[in-house]
Design goal:
Elements lengths: L6 H15 L2 H25 L9 E14 L2 E11 L4 E2 L2 E7 L10 E9 L12 H7 L2 E7 L4 E4 L4 H12 L6 H9 L7 H9 L10 H19 L3 H6 L2 H19 L4 H18 L6 H15 L7 H16 L8 H27 L1 E2 L3 H28 L3 H26 L6 E2 L5 H19 L3 H20 L8 E4 L8 E4 L5 E4 L11 H12 L4 E5 L5 H4 L2 H7 L3 E7 L6 H12 L3 E5 L4 E4 L2 E7 L15 E5 L5 E4 L5 H10 L6 E3 L11 H7 L3 E4 L12 H10 L2 E4 L5 E4 L8 E4 L6 H11 L3
Parallel strand pairs: 4-6, 12-13, 13-14, 14-15, 19-20, 20-21, 21-22
Antiparallel strand pairs: 1-2, 1-5, 2-3, 2-4, 5-6, 5-7, 8-9, 10-11, 10-23, 11-12, 16-17, 17-18, 18-19, 23-24
Helix pairs in contact: 2-11, 2-25, 4-14, 6-15, 7-9, 7-10, 7-14, 9-10, 10-11, 10-12, 11-12, 12-13, 13-14, 14-15, 16-17, 18-20
Length: 762
Amino acid sequence: MLPLLPAGVMFLLLMLVLALIGSRAAAGMLAAGAVLGLMSLWTDAQWARVDPSWLEGEQQITAEVARVQPMGAARRLRLKDIVRQDGLELRGLADVYVYGFHGDIFPGAHVRLRARFHLPENHRNPGAFDYRAWCFDHHLALIGSATGRLVVLSQRMALFDSWRERIRKALAGVPASGVIAALLLAERRHVPEEWHLAFSATGTSHLLAISGLHLGMVGMLAYWVVWWLLTRRESWIVAMPVRPLCWSAALLMALAYAHLAGWPLPARRAAMMMAAGVLAWWFSARASPLQVLVLALALILVLDPPAISSASLWLSFLATAAIVSFSKRSPPRSWSQRIGMLARVSLLAWLATLPIVVDLFGRLPLWALPVNLLLVPLYACWVMPWSLMGALASVLDWPQLAHGAMWLAGMAIEASARMLLMIQRLPGGDLVSVDVSLGSQLLYAMLIGLGCLSFWRRRQGAGLALTGAAVAFLTFSALHEVHMPAWQWVVWDAGQGSASSLMAPDGAVLCLDAPGRRGSRFNGGYMVKEGLRSLGYRRLDVLLISHAQQDHVGGALSLARGMGGMRELWLPLSARGAAATLSLVQWADEHGVAVRWLKRGDRMRWHGARVEVLWPEQGNREGRGNDASLVVRLELPRGPSLLFPGDIERRSERILVERGLRPVWGMLMPHHGSRTSSSPAFVNALQPALAIAQTGRGNRYGFPDPLVVARYREQGSSVWNTAEGAVMVNWSAGPDSVRIRYWPEGFSARRRLALQWAAAGL
């Protein structure tokens, strides 16, 4: 993905802007920020550097809990001040997954436990999120799993942590509590996935993140409350500096709000931007708002150099810069003028941030302008005030008032979410985009810049034409699918789960399985969706599920919802009525997707390929276990044949061999390369030239089993493992010529170099 322009390009553009507006002070600060950025990079590498002994076996540690996050059957603890039994300290932080602990544990607790650690790792897929870079920037050095009993040595909750806990308790039973938790505590894990997608599709995802908009809402509420209080008496107006006190109250309230939320990165940078707004008022006689804004940006980059690659920073800066540069300065006097100003501000922000929004959220939000005109005032005038009142009542331990205030906020959020879901189904309401190239982003920026210049020179017709051309061009770039001219097979790096995709030359995509943990947004389905977008695909033709277990179907609904359409859903007849497939079938029925239940003997044609179902039989007694998996043979036109055996084990393999199995060119190892599958007779009957094991890096099962790998190699197979990266197979040179490769890891080059320098002691 290219969520924003590379940092170097952004730096050059900023220097150009500074030169144009003549701000020498800001230019100097920005240059200082570039120097300090290198120093910051080296410092971050020291936090991320780990002694190799931490990766050897179990480690007994004591640590302080900085954050607690429920993760299904586990809890993820963010640990700091970590000390090993031998006295060795870990400078950075660590995330440890704890299973089976049923007691209460809060931030601030001191704990002792045993754990196994590994370094943060990226999934090696097209379009993959750079998790290692994220961990580097957040000083997260190790990831681990507890292997023994967790002992809480002491537990004392800090003041703000106790307030957050009271707010969480007050949210119990409140409508749309997940969104309110996102607004108050920066915790978005309980927002329903379909709501996340609706916010993304309509260009309103910024309402779920604590950013400049929310700090501005809180600040303005505080401003008007203090203004109302201080203007009750004429003597107060004369005796006190009313406006400075109001601005100070606004800034302090915004900072308190950001602190309550735990200072997420967007809130930190938004707070600096808000401080710049206060400075803009103080120094309005000597500097324009744009100059002060750029000065604030330079200050942010000096204090936080990695922010130059932060999408949230550029979203806030570009939107604010567009508004202060091209909005009218005179205040609105009538309601029609206020509505016109809101529309103008929304349009400017939309135009300025559109390329980043498209690439960051994977949607082209054509309905963003009218939706924001409705929701921004709703959130500013209703949702945020009631949510903040509920938070204040929670802190003061007034549970009934807190619940009532949050209930009022939640009802409005729920109604607005239903509206978003309706808009999402309108024409153009949910346009999934492919990744937009850097060249397309630059061309869009150039056209928008020329359009703004034309408006500045009062050439309205030319400005409208250039702006319209920019939006039309970006729309074409976002919706234009680019396909391989030949068959392509991708077996994704989806951890300890199964996911693969077959792409036909005409652009049709067949996806087989999508793993994921129930309730998780960033699962195998999300990875496959982002990978397909990165390769230039927006739609699915067929989604095929081998069997109803989470490591094959858990992310299927995320994948189906995340793509821009799907024609058919293929499921094993043995999984009919399974809880894991009910929501998927319901979604298909609601969206007009045909559902086909498969069993042994079914044969279909798919874009020139022949598809044959070899297993299971209609009366299969295995129910929904491994041996109920679909076994599908697919023959490409005038080309090789592929086998997708799911998780079948030796019993099913024996029956298939007895009934006759033809050799195949390529296959997935059944059950991820487990010793309970891939029997000698099965492997000898198939004689695959290519055998791929789908496993997680360092998985606790030891998959693929070394004996199984040796069995395939003895037969003459080339063995590949998705733990090393997604396996990319394409026949671009014809059916008799194939290219196979691993997708490389997309870890930031500058961070990798910084770690190498730190390891060398530089």
